[in-house]
Amino acid sequence: MRPTPDDLPALGSPAPRREGREKVTGAARYAAEHTPSGCAYAWPVPATIARGHVTSVDTTAATALPGVVGVLTPYDAPRLGEADDPTLRLLQDLRVPHRGWYVALAVADTLERARAAASAVCVAYESDPHDVTLTVGHQDAHTPEEANGGHPAHREQGDPDAALATAPVQVDCAYAVPPLHNHPMEPHAATAVWDEESHHLTVHDSSQGAGPVRAALAALFKLAEEQITVVSEHVGGGFGSKGTPRPHVVLATMASRHYGRPVKLALPRAHLPATVGHRAPTLHRVRLGARADGTLTALTHEVTTHTSRVREFVEQAAVPARVMYAVPDIRTTHRVVALDVPTPSWMRAPGEAPGMYALESAMDELADALGMDPVELRVRNEPLTEPDSGRPFSSRHLVECLREGAERFDWAGRREPRREGTYLFGSGMAAATYPVLVSPSTARAHARPDGRFLVEVNATDIGTGARTVLAQVAADALRVPLESVSVAIGHTGLPAAPLAGGSSGTASWGWAVHDACVALIARREGHHGPLPPEGLSASADTTQSAKQKSPYSRHAFGAHFVEVRVDTVSGEVRVRRMLGVFAAGRILNPRTARSQFKGAMVMGLGMALTEHSTMDAAFGDFIESDLAAYHVPAHADVPTIEVHWVDEYDKHLNPMGSKGIGEIGIVGTAAAIGNAVCHATGRRLRELPLTPDRVLTALRPAD
Fold first, then answer.
1. At a CB cut-off of 8 Å and minimum separation 6, what does 64 contact?
2. Which residues contact 421 (CB under 8 A, 6 or more apart)?
3. Closest C-alpha to 575, from 598, 532, 608, 552
4. Of 23, 263, 273, 519, whose CB count within 10 A is highest?
5. How far, in Å, CA of 252 to CA of 230, rounded?
6. Are 318 and 143 within 8 A, CB to CB?
7. pLDDT value at position 528?
8. What sign has the CA pseudo-torsion 493, 498, 503, 504?
C-alpha cells in the first residue's frame, strides 16, 4: 500500500546532502581525479607581454626533457572550428591580446615533467603599446547596445537632470569596485580521452554545465555532439567562472586528439585570474534627489567598466536601480572601455553585487542628508509596480524583510555609534534583490518494479545541494518517501538541461523533474498489474512553458544588517554580527538554503573588507594572482551569521513556487558593511575594499 501524504516528508524539509559522505571521505571523484591508463599531463605556457604577437617559439629544450610527449604551439597546433566564445580559439594565431594568453602547451607523462617542459619553452615576442587602465573619462569609452544578460545598456524615464536640479535634498556620489576573482576551491580541470577507433571523445570537466561544454567542443573540433560525452558529476565550486567552457577543456581535448592518448590538465591557481574570467572593475556615479520627507524624485546611476579586446562583456551594474525604488525620473546607463586585459565574465550576482553596493551606499548617504532612518527611507520609496517596466511584482515582500530584520537585529537600539577605548562600533543595513531566472529543461523519471524511482536530468551540482533538492522535488511530485528516489545528474547522456548559473538551476531543472514525475504518475495509474521488468518511464520538456514571457516582474528580495568594530590604531574593520532576511519564494530545503545564504554573505564580507585585485599598468597583469595575495575571508574573519526568511507564496514562478537563492546573499552585504563603518567612524569610504590603510587615511584629521 502506498503511504498517505501525511506519512511523507513535505518538500521543504531539511534533508541532508546526499553526496556529503562521498565528499568528506574522498569517494566523490572530481575532474582531475580520473586517470585513464596511459594518461599524459598538460601544462600551458602563458604570454609574458601585455600586448603584441609571438615571433618565434623554440621547443628544442622542452622536447629534449625526459618523458615529454610534445609541445603544441600556434605554428603546429590543430586548427579549430568556429566558436561563439573567441577566448576558446587557442593556439590559432600569433597575436597576444593580453598578458597570460596561452601561447603553447607542453604535454608529458607526469605533471612535474609537463611543468618543467612548459618552463623550458622559449617564446619570443614583439610588443605593442598597451592600455589596461580604466578611467571614467577614458577616450575610448562608449555605450554599448546591451549589457550582460541582454539588458539594454541605457534606460531613461522622465527628465532626471531637471528633477535633480530642483530636488530639495540631493546626493551626488562616486563609488569604485575593483576587479574581483572567483577562486573556487577546485581549480579548473579536465581529463580528455579521444578514442580513435570509435571516434568518440569523453571529457571529465570541472564545469557548471556539461551540455554547453559538449556543444562548444563539437563546434571547435568539428564533431557531432553524439560523438562527445561530457561528465561534470562533482564540481568544487565555480561562482560563475565555470559557467561556460574555459581554455583548459579545449587544450586537454586538443592534446588528447593530437597525441592519441588521454590528457589531463588542471590549471594552476595563479593562471586563473587571466584565464577563466573575473568581475570587471566598475566605477559608479549615483545621484539621488528627494523631497524633505524622503520621497525620491530622481535617480541616475552611471557605470563605467572595462572589457577585453577579445570579447565584449559588460557588467550590468546599473540594472538593479531599475527595479528597487519608486522614482518618477530615472536614468541608468553603462559605458565600457575595451582594454588589453583578460576577458571579464560572470561572478556571483554579476551586476547586482557591485551595482547594489553603489545604490545602497547612496541611499544611506541620502538618509544621512535627510536625517532619516535608513530603513524608513527604503520603506517610504517602496514601489507598487516595477519602476522600469510598470509590470506588477509576482511577489516582493521587501518591506517585510526590512521590518523583520530591524526587529531581530534590534536596529532601533543600535542607532547610536559608540566608542570603547580605541574601538569604534557602528551598525549598517542595505536592501538586496536578484531576478528570478528560468531556462527550458528536460528530465526523465523511471518507476522500478522494486518500488524505487530514478530521476535523470543533466543538472550540475557545484556544491549547492542540487542532487538533494531535486530528489525532494521528485518525491513530493510522486508522493513517495524521499529515500525511494535516486537522482542521476552531471552527464550529457542524461536528458538535456541548462547550466548551473543565475540562481536558475533548481527552478529550471526542478520544473522538468516535477513535470516528468507527474507524467509518470499518470502512466502508472493507467497501467494495470505488476510493472514490467524494465519498469515504466516518462519524460518532460519545459521549453514551451519556461519560455513564455511572464506578465509579472519576478525577483527575490532581502535585507542585510551588520555591526562592525573599527580599530582606530590599526585601521582594521571587524564585522561582529551579520543578519539577513530574505523573501525568496518557497524554501525547498532549509538546510541547504541556509548554507547558500550564509556562503554568499561571507563572500560579500570578503568583497567589503579584503578582496581586490590590482591591474599593474606597466606590466598589464593582475598582481594578486593567488590566495596568498588575494585575500578571501578565513574562519577567523567570519562573525556570527543569522539567516532568516519570510514565508512567501508565489504562484507565478514554477510548480515548486521557488526562487533562486545562490546569489542574493552577496547582494547588498558590502553596502551594509560600508554603511556600518560610516556609522561607526563618521567617515564615508567609497572605494572597496575597506582595508586598514584606507580606514586610517579616512580617520586622519584633515590638515
1. none
2. none
3. 608
4. 263
5. 13
6. no
7. 87
8. negative
**Residue for grid cell 542607532:** 415
* Catalytic status, residue 407: no
Selected residue with higher pLDDT from 703 and 699:
699
Enter the C-alpha cell of residue 253: 581535448
Q: DSSP letters of 319-381?
A: TTHHHHS--SEEEEEEEEEEESSPPP---SSTTHHHHHHHHHHHHHHHHHHHT--HHHHHHHT
Q: Please state, in angstroms and rounded to a whole number, the distance separating the CA atoms of residues 347 and 595.
A: 18
pLDDT tens string 360-418: 999 999 999 999 999 999 999 999 999 999 999 999 999 999 999 999 999 999 999 99
5-29+441-546 and 34-129+183-275: identical CATH topology: yes
Contact 545, 608 (CB under 8 A): no
- The whole-model pTM stands at 0.96
Q: Are 542 and 507 in contact (CB under 8 A)?
A: no
- CA-CA-CA-CA torsion sign (237, 242, 246, 250): positive
Distance separating alpha carbons of residues 541 and 514, to the nearest angstrom: 11
Q: Which CATH number fits domain 34-129+183-275: 3.30.365.10, 3.50.50.60, 3.30.70.1450, 3.40.50.1000?
A: 3.30.365.10
| Contact status, residue 74 vs residue 93, Cβ threshold 8 Å | yes
Indicate the helix (H) or strand (E) that contains 546. helix 543-546
Backbone angles phi, psi at 608, to 5 degrees: -75, -40
- CA atoms of 676 and 573, how far apart (whole Å): 10
Report d(CA 255, CA 437) in Å as an integer: 37
Does 498 sit behind a cis peptide bond, omega within 30 degrees of 0 on the bond before it? no
| C-alpha to C-alpha distance for 304 and 275, rounded to whole angstroms | 23
Rounded to the nearest angstrom, the gap between the alpha carbon of residue 306 and the centroid of all alpha carbons in its chain is 18
pLDDT over 90 at 575, yes or no: yes
Domain ranges for the chain: 5-29+441-546, 34-129+183-275, 146-180+278-436+551-699
Supply the DSSP symbol for 587: -
497 phi and psi, to 5 degrees? -150, 155
Task: List the catalytic residue out of 156, 416, 663, 687.
Answer: 663
Nearest Cα neighbor of 57 from 68, 69, 45, 66 is: 45
Separation in Å, CA 105 to CA 36, 204, 267, 620, 678: 20, 19, 12, 22, 50
What are all long-range contacts of 632-638, with beta carbons under 8 Å and residues at least 24 apart? 632/183, 632/606, 633/602, 633/603, 633/605, 633/606, 633/609, 637/574, 637/575, 637/605, 637/606, 637/609, 637/610, 638/602, 638/605
Q: What is the pLDDT of residues 106-126, one digit of tens each?
A: 999 999 999 999 999 999 999
- For residue 542, what are the CA distances in angstroms to 103, 478, 509, 548, 649? 43, 18, 9, 10, 22
Amino acid at 257: R
Please give the Cα distance from 357 to 341 (Å, whole number): 24
What are the beta bridge partners of residue 393? 553
Task: Show the cell assigned to 613.
Answer: 585585485
